[in-house]
Design goal:
Elements lengths: L1 E4 L7 E4 L5 H13 L1 E7 L5 H12 L3 E6 L2 E7 L11 E2 L4 H11 L6 E4 L10 H9 L4 E3 L7 E3 L9 E3 L5 H11 L5 E5 L7 H8 L4 E4 L2 E5 L8 E3 L4 H13 L4 E8 L6 H8 L3 E10 L2 E9 L20 H10 L3 E4 L12 H9 L5 E5 L2 E5 L9 E5 L4 H10 L6 E5 L11 H8 L3 E4 L1
Parallel strand pairs: 2-15, 3-14, 6-7, 10-11, 21-22
Antiparallel strand pairs: 1-22, 1-23, 3-5, 4-5, 7-9, 8-9, 11-13, 12-13, 15-17, 16-17, 18-20, 19-20
């Protein structure tokens, strides 16, 4: 599936709610499956990544109904109630599924092998294998720590303290989830704050999780009690429309019921530093997570040096922030973001490879990029961009078309369905001139 984008959308207008948060959707299935009792989830993201998690637990004997219009009902089997799957688990494109599951699989009595698609099979799993081995778990990977990843069951994980070598919520969560099966207290210290949905949701399931400064502690052997979960709209999906409204002329978009967990709001801070006109209102708390409505209007964006402290808090939003930088006046510099090179694609390179043919000066560095704002596509009629099997690259270039003067073809957009299956129709609804070509 390709996107074909005509240049120069007019004004961008809308009042929309994007689909449910991907991180929370994954965790709702994992914790709901391991809880005692029936967990009901609303607002579940019906995207391929979250469905990969759902199907993995179905293959391990959990009875799950739905999703039906965002509603999922999970009959929890308790911490020790999972059954060995018949085959290896196919995880698709989802890094969160494979890394969090590897922690949970460490506590089972059976072996599990997990493999993914072309993109996932290139991503590093050593970052979860290392702490799991320290916990005494037997882990096998393919060459260079890539999937398939096999977790051998039958050994009780040992509680450890782990200093995370990189700011990664997936690795933090993997260790904490393995720690649920250990005797004693497992603790993790992170080098910078990363998303804390695992900690919050564990509390929602009645677990005690102690957070002091940059360290999270969890006592093993706690029972999870079923609960009700209302998943807010994903701020990472909302980000495409925040940038769309910021760069368009005469634009106004209202995004409803967006999760604004402070470990996720870097995109708002960065756009505001660039001069974005963003109003967060109707703030409320839903099931232990802060939620709000967000209004974004056109703005004259300026290039900035992105503060490194904001990088982990906006880690998934950089592809579309690079589009904002391309439309801004002056230079934007990103540093301290080497993690972008090991996402669904090498996001620094994939974005530069799309922006440069449109005449934008985008110079990758080892840990970031330098982008000089300009007119996209001033000297070409049409560019073809490779989405590199990465949903966020595809959607970022769809947003670019608002300001581009050339036609943009984005090749390989199937993976948009991993996080935002309704993107094309919502984008069209707000005024982006997008055609889906099979
Ligand atoms: C996620 C954590 C982030 C993020 C990913 C989802 C999660 O990855 O990029 O899309 O749900 O825990 P890292 O923790 O590897 O940075």
């Amino acid at each position: 599936m390709n996107f074909l984008l005509s240049p120069g959308a007019g004004s961008i207008k809308g009042d929309i709610r994007v689909p449910g948060d991907k991180s929370m959707s994954h965790r709702s299935i994992m914790l709901g499956s391991l809880a005692e009792g029936v967990t009901k989830v609303d607002g579940f993201l019906e995207g391929d990544d979250a469905l990969a998690t759902l199907n993995a637990f179905k293959s391990m004997g959990v009875n799950i109904q739905g999703p039906d219009n965002g509603r999922v009902v999970i009959e929890g089997v308790g911490l020790h109630g999972l059954k060995a799957p018949k085959d290896q688990l196919y995880i698709g494109n989802s890094g969160t599924t494979i890394r969090l599951l590897s922690g949970l699989m460490a506590g089972q009595s059976f072996d599990v092998t997990m493999a993914g698609d072309e993109s996932l099979n290139k991503r590093p799993m050593g970052r979860v294998a290392t702490p799991l081995k320290l916990m005494g778990v037997e882990v096998e990977t393919a060459e260079n720590g890539r999937p398939p990843l096999t977790i051998k069951g039958g050994t009780k994980p040992q509680a450890i303290h782990y200093d995370l070598p990189m700011a990664s919520a997936q690795v933090k969560s993997c260790v904490l989830l393995a720690g649920l099966y250990a005797d004693g207290v497992t603790s993790v210290t992170e080098p910078a704050p990363t998303r804390d949905h695992t900690e919050r949701m564990l509390r929602g399931f009645g677990c005690e999780v102690d957070v002091q400064g940059d360290t999270v502690r969890l006592q093993g052997g706690q029972t999870l009690k079923a609960c009700e979960i209302d998943v807010p709209a994903d701020i990472s999906s909302s980000a495409f429309f925040m940038v769309a409204a910021s760069i368009a002329d005469d634009a106004e978009i209202v995004l409803r019921h967006v999760g604004i967990n402070p470990t996720r709001t870097g995109v708002i801070d960065i756009l505001k530093l660039m001069g974005g006109d963003i109003e967060v209102f109707n703030e409320r708390e839903v099931g232990g997570e802060p939620v709000a409505d967000i209004r974004v209007r056109s703005a004259n964006l300026k290039g900035i040096d992105i503060p490194e402290a904001l990088v982990p808090l906006a880690i998934d939003e950089f592809p579309v922030l690079f589009i904002a930088a391309s439309c801004a006046e002056g230079v934007t510099r990103l540093t301290g973001a080497e993690e972008l090179r090991v996402k669904e694609s090498d996001r620094i390179q994939a974005m530069a490879d799309g922006l440069v043919p449109m005449g934008i000066k985008a110079e990758p560095t080892e840990d970031g990029i330098v982008i000089e704002g300009g007119v996209m596509g001033a000297d070409v009629d049409r560019v073809s961009v490779d989405a590199c099997h990465d949903h966020r690259i595809a959607m970022a270039f769809a947003v670019a078309s608002i300001k581009a003067q050339c036609e943009i073809e984005v090749v390989g957009c199937d993976n948009v369905a991993t996080s935002f299956p309704t993107f094309a129709s919502l984008a069209t609804e707000v005024g982006i001139k997008l055609q889906v070509v099979e």
